[in-house]
Amino acid sequence: MSRLLITLRTSSVRLGFAIGARRPVRPLIVLATSHTERIDGNLAWIRDVLAARTPPPSVAVLAFRHRGGLGRVAALWHAVRSGYLLATARVVVVDDYFFPMYVIRPRPGTRRIQVWHAAGAFKKFGYSVLDKSFGATEETIARVPIHANYDLCLVSSAAAAPHYAEAFRLPVSLFTARLGIPRTDLFFDAERRARAIERVRDLYRLPAGRRVILHAPTFRGPSVIAARDPGLLDLRVMHELLGDDHVLVLRMHPFVRDRAPLPAGLEGFVVDASDHPDMNELLLVADMLVTDYSSVVFEFALLGRPMAFVAPDLAEYERERGFYFDYRTGVPGPVFDTTRELAAWIRAGTFDPGQVEAFARTWFEVADGRATARLVEDVLLPAADGQWPALTGGA
Q1: At what angle do helices 68-88 and 3-20 cross, to 10 degrees?
Q2: How distant is the alpha carbon of residue 126 from its chain centre?
Q3: For the chain: N or C, fewer Cβ within 10 A?
Q4: Which of 278, 339, 275 is nearest to 308 (CA)?
Q5: What backbone torsions phi and psi does residue 67 show, to the nearest 5 degrees?
Q6: DSSP 199-219
Q7: Closest among 106, 184, 110, 116 to 380, alpha carbons compared
Q8: What is the pLDDT averaged over residues 355-371?
Q9: What are the backbone dihedrals phi and psi of residue 39, each rounded to the nearest 5 degrees, phi first?
Q10: What is the pTM of this model?
Q11: pLDDT tens for residues 296-341?
Q12: Pick from 300, 316, 390: which is nearest to 353 by CA?
């Protein structure tokens, strides 16, 4: 972010905050994100549970992702509105880096909660990557903290809390694993789960009797703005070795804007579900996950199904981003350099469910379908009424 843009956005947020600070704080819950044009994942689950209450509490949504010159102009308006809501709402919930929250001094009686968009602690982020090409520069963080002003942060387990504390440069006491991760509730709701499976299978015309491989790689590049597709798999080789009884569902990372067209002749084998709004719905239909460095491995582990990893650029990615644990020994499945090796392993069918189950036990302390309800009932609603619960503190 250029120095001028930082100055403009900071001034816009503070203008909105100054206007809002002249008004009383109100029992409003704000759900905010700045990387997508609509809320999803944890924030969407929170929104739905809040809306189902009688009477529903007051909720406002902030969702925007600026692109190009006009997008940056629109971002200034969103910055003003964000500052105003940060000043007037008792509770603000974010799921990622949220610039407006870091350039104001919170008013008394307001609370800010970080639910994040990933479970576990896999690839490094925040202050953990200041020495990496992916990270922010020292000049940037001298002007604007990467993460600040949180009163509570959700984590999936105590094992993840020290890594998140390092990434946010916050005391570990602000992190809690006692509530769970809201979007994992889908896996434990039999009725909603069945509807999601039927909807996805119908939408993408997934043939019965074929094993579904979900390929969900993360992006490459020095920033989310410059995200690119890693192009890990040779889809023709996958088709050659597995096409008779498998189907491959492709889900590119949402940050990747420019996607190469699928090779001709693979219709019926490769299905592009990159624009599907809910990753966890895709996980439900997958018999197997193939990824590289994506944090989707944590939630997929809750399903107890096989995973495999393709990482031909591991050394380069380690230099660019890095991990919180040893990659080759820490991931819950075999690591391959080539598509042919991967396909041969899938065809052999030598899976180790115990490895996946152990991974899930390490990275999830609470996964029972009640995470969203607990967060809403034990934290958000009391906070909106001006009461900060004692359970928040310590993982």
Answers
A1: 30
A2: 14
A3: N
A4: 339
A5: -135, 130
A6: HHHHHTTPPTTSEEEEE----
A7: 110
A8: 96
A9: -75, 150
A10: 0.91
A11: 999 999 999 999 999 999 999 998 889 999 999 999 999 999 999 9
A12: 300
Question: Do the Cβ atoms of 228 and 256 come closer than 8 Å?
Answer: yes
- Position of tokens 């008779």? 244
pLDDT at residue 67, as a whole number: 65
pLDDT at residue 151 greater than cutoff 80: yes
Tokens of 44: 């969407």
Distance in angstroms (rounded) separating the CA atoms of residues 218 and 251: 9
* Tokens of residue 167, six digits: 């990434």
Q: Give residue 251's identity as a one-letter amino acid code.
A: R
> Based on C-alpha coordinates, what's the Rg of the chain?
21
| Structure tokens that stand for 46 in this block | 């929170």
Give which of 277, 257, 276, 261 is closest to 68, Cα–Cα.
257
Look at the domain 3-181+368-384 and name its fold.
Rossmann fold (3.40.50)
Asked whether the domain spanning 189-363 has the same topology as the one spanning 3-181+368-384, the reply is yes
State pLDDT tens for residues 22-72: 999 999 999 999 878 889 999 999 999 999 999 999 999 999 876 666 667
138: number of Cβ within 10 Å: 9
* Terminal alpha carbon distance of the chain: 33
Superfamily of domain 189-363 in CATH is CDP-glycerol glycerophosphotransferase, C-terminal domain (3.40.50.12580)
Report the pLDDT value the prediction gives residue 6, as an integer from 0 to 100. 85
d(CA 293, CA 2): 29
Spatial distance between the Cα atoms of 102 and 197, rounded to a whole number of angstroms: 39
CB 324 within 8 A of CB 122: yes
User: Which residue ranges make up each domain of the chain?
Assistant: 3-181+368-384, 189-363
Contacts 24+ apart (CB under 8 A), 35-39: 35/65, 35/96, 35/97, 35/117, 35/224, 35/255, 36/63, 36/65, 36/254, 37/63, 37/64, 37/65, 38/63, 38/277, 39/63, 39/95
- Least confident range from 222-226, 357-361, 378-382: namely 222-226
The pLDDT of residue 394 is: 46
Residue 14 and residue 104 in contact, taking contact as beta carbons nearer than 8 Å = yes
